[in-house]
Amino acid sequence: MGAVRILLPVPRTLARAHVGLGGPLLGAALLRCLTPGLFLIWQRPPERLLAWSEEAVAVYRTLHEGPRRRSGDGLTLALVLYANALYVAGRYEEALAASDESRAVVGARMSPTRSAYALRVRTLLLTETGRLDEALTVARQCVAAYRDTEPRGRERSLGSYADALRIQAWVLDRMGRVHESVNL
What we know:
Blueprint: H1 2-6, H2 9-16, H3 22-34, H4 46-64, H5 72-88, H6 92-103, H7 112-128, H8 132-147, H9 161-174, H10 178-183
């Protein structure tokens, strides 16, 4: 991630110059910077996450609305990562709107791990906004999605089955169903 972050000005320049691969290259670089790493020791500042995620959403919107209408998957992931960055910044209502928008992107076919991650982020947002019954339903879908996936490569950092179970237990605890939470 460090090398990608350092080299971000190059794809930005290519994208501004409207060079053919500039937009897709910039979008991929931004998603790489936003995706959590396996061995991330430090937490990235929320301001930087928000800036990168807003830029990624803008890039993928441009690509998705262009004449070729591509990058539905990229736009969906960018919106999910934007929702996560807003969650980290404590802007839950805006994050929920971004999460809702990510579910409505036409032509998106995300991998099972990315879909499970989107459910994970949505569960956290619904819980923070007080929609606990809906959050529990989404948490159960998240657990099922992680149970059925086998993440590969960088996608391994997008959560796990154990993490999904922990989040479901957290939702149950917030609902006051402590006994079920402990059993889980």
